[in-house]
Amino acid sequence: MKQYHQPHKKRVSSGTGGRREKYRDKKLSHMGGEFTATKAADTEKRTKKRQRGGKTTVKLKKTMSVNVVAKEGKVKKAKILKLLESHNPEYVRMNIITKGAVLETDLGKVKVTNRVGQDGVVNGILVS
């Protein structure tokens, strides 16, 4: 479900409990996008979505690897084994990767540092 990103503005009444008038109707330009539930899987899947003004963004649907920044500062590509923890316990059960999630990889535990569904890649730092 899409989300509306503009606050509800209403005219201030005198405080008597009278009915308030609507400031204006909702605008399509204030609508947000749908949540991209990026899953850890055995394949990679990306989709392109057209934005306002002809701009395109890449949405990551499924992924099997993560770009890891190691302690030396070098970036290595690691295979995702499983999702260990997330801010939502249901996401762990469904293997949905979000920012702040901890992944088990072949290099060790990795914390995701980017917004995966919006960036089109998974980046993270080595935790242990």
Assigned CATH architecture of one domain: Roll
Order of helices and strands: EEEEEHEEEHE
CA-CA gap between termini: 37 Å
SS-based class: mainly beta
Could you name the CATH topology of one domain? Structural Genomics Hypothetical 15.5 Kd Protein In mrcA-pckA Intergenic Region, Chain A
Q: Helix coverage percent of residues?
A: under 10%
Overall geometry comes to elongated
The major pleated sheet works out as: 5 strands, mixed, barrel
Radius of gyration: 20 Å
Oligomer: single chain
Strand order of the largest sheet: 4-5-7-8-9
Notable characteristics:
4-stranded mixed β-sheet; mainly beta; 128 residues; 5-stranded mixed barrel; elongated; 8% helix; Structural Genomics Hypothetical 15.5 Kd Protein In mrcA-pckA Intergenic Region, Chain A
Provide the fold topology.
Layout: E1 38-40, E2 45-50, E3 56-63, E4 65-69, E5 75-85, H1 89-94, E6 96-97, E7 102-105, E8 109-112, H2 116-119, E9 123-126
Parallel strand pairs: 1-3, 4-9
Antiparallel strand pairs: 1-6, 2-3, 4-5, 5-7, 7-8, 8-9
Describe the structure in brief.
This protein has 128 residues and is mainly beta.
Kindly describe this structure:
With 128 residues, this protein is mainly beta. The protein has a domain of 89 residues: Structural Genomics Hypothetical 15.5 Kd Protein In mrcA-pckA Intergenic Region, Chain A (Roll), CATH 3.10.290. It contains two helices and nine strands. The strands form two sheets. It has a five-stranded mixed beta barrel. Strands 2-3-1-6 form a four-stranded mixed sheet. A hairpin with a 5-residue loop joins strand 2 and strand 3. The protein is elongated and about 60 Å long. The two termini are 37 Å apart.
